[in-house]
Amino acid sequence: MEVYLDNNATTKVDPEVFKAMEPFFCDIYGNPNSLHKFGAGTHKKMVEALDYLYSGINAADEDDIVITGNATESNNTVIKGIWVDKILNGNKNHIITSEVEHPSITAVCKFLETQGVSVTYLPVNEEGILEAQQVADYIKEDTALVTIMWANNETGKLFPIKEIGQICKDAGVPFHTDATQAIGKVPVDVQACNVNYLSFSAHKFHGPKGVGGLYIQKGFEVTPLLHGGEQMGGHRAGTVDVASMIGMGVAMKLATSEMALAYENNHVRKLRDKLENAILEIPETIVIGGKENRTPNTTLISIRGVEGESMLWDMNQKTIGASTGSACASEDLEANPVMNAFGSDSELAHTGVRFSLSRFNTEAEIDYAIDVIKGAIARLRSISSSYAYTPKNHVSEL
Q: Structural domains in the chain?
């Protein structure tokens, strides 16, 4: 049996999405900016896809949703655009973010620091909680942007986006959120949460890879990352990948319907909890960040005495896909900064394994995964030169 439990990395394309995309490769292929009937036919379907995107995040008609290559491009567009608009050409020089953002946020912020920009990286506590008041405490007169993710990609922890949005609105500071891991898992409402910019990627909610979106609220313009033609209202030059845009629109429609979100919150959560609880029956296993306030599909579990990558190897031999909480950027097995930020000790920082489910997982798959995981833990601990079980260390949450 093959079991895919790495859906926070990417998801399979929903068959309904693939079916909707097919005509736009060979049948409906006109450039949507062309005036002839071939372009008009394409343009009509693009407008329909945009409607699905607007509805999925409750954007207002006067707002903009820019089609990008992915959330990484969207994040870069906002942060570098703010840098040009409010820092290079304004009197602002400060950005607020968190210590556990996706690299497409932190890497840009690190780059801007080399250009003289001041960046505040807000910490999270051992439960992965970022208090909204932390944002309020660090906003200054020269704060150009606050960028905080909606849901963490490794733990699934949800941040207080609505409260942060209100704080930023009251302070007159633009607010951006990377909602890549939230869409299709929890309700996302840009109007209710006072979000000015929002990023997402289609392949995280069963759409195609290579296409994403950037929501821009009316009145919050940003200098484009790509200059050229007037596509996307001048926000992003270049001919749009029509088939992928259509696929993203349909995927958004399917993922954000009331029925889909209810299924995620009930069925997917039930499967996640079954897997998680079975692993936690094993001594000295913990859920990083605890069980509360998470997306319903994600768990990051640390297994003392078992290197995350060794665990992935064993699971892969039994055709189970997951991901590690350890970033092997060097021979020194550099610990994942997210786990460090959560207060994990030096040993546990290398032992995390992330399981992320989707609506396509079945209970039979989870039963199989549980058997394989238990066997792998037993085997790897039996050959470990450093692991020795001590009952007093058996806890279920960190």
A: 15-255 (3.40.640.10), 258-393 (3.90.1150.10)
